[in-house]
Design goal:
This protein is of the alpha+beta class. It is 27% helix and 53% strand. Strand 2 and strand 3 form a beta hairpin.
């Protein structure tokens, strides 16, 4: 059962990565709408945190990305700047001064 779950997760990750690689990189002006952190406490010694940022892009659509903690700490709600992404993959956000 464990092997089947790990295999499924690997295949799903590979397919998502392949799909993202085939999509164009998008650069658009965006505003940070919200941020959230999801703490996964599997057991005492194993805890992980996933960081998410929700952006509103020029056409008023909203997109959410799972990002690294180092990027999460540098972005604040209300920031406006240039968002770069490819499919579901966050690439960069450069805040305007």
């Amino acid at each position: 059962m464990f092997f089947a779950i790990v295999t499924f997760m690997f295949i799903r990750s590979f397919m998502r990565r392949s799909k993202n690689n085939n999509l164009p990189q998008v650069n658009t002006r965006a505003r940070v709408v919200s941020k959230r952190a999801n703490l996964n406490n599997f057991n005492k010694p194993l805890t992980t945190t996933n960081y998410f940022v929700n952006f509103e892009v020029e056409n008023k659509d909203r997109v959410e990305f799972n990002i690294l903690g180092s990027d999460y700490g540098m972005i604040a709600e209300g920031d406006v700047g240039m968002l770069e992404y490819q499919g579901t993959r966050f690439l960069d956000f450069k805040r305007e001064n």
